[in-house]
Write a structure and sequence with these properties.
Blueprint: E1 12-15, H1 24-32, E2 37-44, H2 45-49, H3 53-58, E3 68-73, H4 77-88, E4 94-99, H5 104-108, H6 119-132, E5 137-146, E6 153-155, H7 156-163, E7 168-177, H8 188-197, E8 201-205, H9 211-221, E9 225-228, H10 238-248, H11 256-274, H12 276-289, H13 296-303, H14 309-317
Parallel strand pairs: 1-2, 1-9, 2-3, 3-4, 4-5, 5-7, 7-8, 8-9
Antiparallel strand pairs: 5-6
Organism: Candidatus Kerfeldbacteria bacterium CG08_land_8_20_14_0_20_43_14
Family: Belongs to the dus family.
Protein name: tRNA-dihydrouridine synthase
Length: 319
């Protein structure tokens, strides 16, 4: 098995998986922006087994994205085995299992972070994936989740201890709990504990919005790299900024003329892969690019109504 994780220069800067965000166009933009590894949106193992056309449409990627990791979720070991066999043959560099998603719909179905409450099942799922896979298997977990019935907190370290005898290549730890999924201070200790207990690659994730935060998180945790999610919203160049800051202590801030070129490139890639309906989906991301800029409110009100490449070109040309 070709374990690409072992060949990456540290610190590894990865685009973390985000549902409805990390499609092929966004991944390509982040690759251009300096990301080392790209994660897909998560896809259902059930949908792969039942050959969902929509899901297989989401699985398309460009060779320029590599190394690219496909993320899966579900709760049936037999579906993990079957789906990972399929994914191993599609050209991905790795497969990642989601044990971290806090979304209501996913948790209600028993997936995502909810799986951390059943570590025996977690091990079955990871083992099924490892047995089926021809590519490295990685995991994404949360700092913790509390079992409402017993009031017992299950931590990322508990999960790692459960699966440490399996050939897992990397773990991304989101340093927030299920109960506070996106707000508040990171549980830095949860990441440190995993780094000390897990012998392969550990990526720290959560709240990396600036190069300064990135440097601090790496120093505090000793992690092998970072998973960057919301920090890349409207800033796919953040990966290069982080690398520059770590290397020389400073980084460039993109000018409006550069931002416009990036937006148009993103729109064209989206149109190529999804057509005009993809541009409608892209509206929120276009709005992220102008956050904090002069006339941001005016630009945002126009960008959230675009329907075509011509609409986007017109707005950018006149501003």
């Amino acid at each position: 098995m070709n374990n690409f994780w072992q060949k990456l220069k540290k610190p590894i800067l990865a685009l973390a998986p985000m549902a409805g965000i990390t499609d092929s166009a966004f991944r390509q933009m982040c690759k251009l922006g300096g990301a080392d590894v790209l994660y897909t949106e998560f896809v259902s193992t059930d949908a792969i087994v039942y050959e969902s056309k929509k899901t297989f449409g989401m699985l398309k990627f460009s060779e320029s994205e590599k190394p690219v990791v496909v993320q899966i979720f579900g709760k049936k070991p037999e579906h993990y085995f079957k789906s990972v066999k399929v994914l191993s043959e599609l050209g991905y560099d790795g497969v990642d299992i989601n044990f971290g998603c806090p979304a209501y719909k996913v948790v209600k179905s028993g997936g995502g972070v909810k799986l951390m409450l059943n570590l025996d099942l977690v091990k079955e799922l990871v083992q099924a994936a490892c047995e089926a896979s021809q590519i490295p298997v990685s995991l994404k977990v949360r700092a913790s989740i509390e079992d409402k019935a017993t009031k017992v907190k299950i931590t990322a370290l508990d999960l790692v201890e459960k699966i440490k005898d399996l050939p897992v290549a990397a773990i991304m730890v989101h340093g927030r709990s299920f109960e506070k999924p996106f707000d508040g201070e990171l549980d830095i200790n949860s990441i440190i504990q995993v780094k000390e207990a897990f012998s392969a690659v550990v990526l720290a994730n959560g709240g990396v919005y600036t190069p300064e935060i990135a440097k601090s998180l790496l120093e505090q945790t000793g992690a092998d790299g970072l998973g960057i999610a919301r920090g890349a919203w409207g800033k796919p160049w953040i990966f290069q900024q982080i690398r520059d800051y770590l290397g020389i202590g400073k980084y460039r801030v993109s000018e409006w003329s550069e931002i416009k070129k990036t937006m148009l490139k993103h729109a064209k890639l989206t149109f190529q892969s999804k057509g005009e309906h993809g541009l409608v989906e892209l509206r929120k991301q276009l709005a992220w690019y102008v956050k904090g800029l002069p006339k941001a409110a005016e630009l945002r009100s126009k960008l959230v109504r675009v329907n075509s490449l011509e609409d986007i070109q017109g707005i950018l040309k006149n501003n």
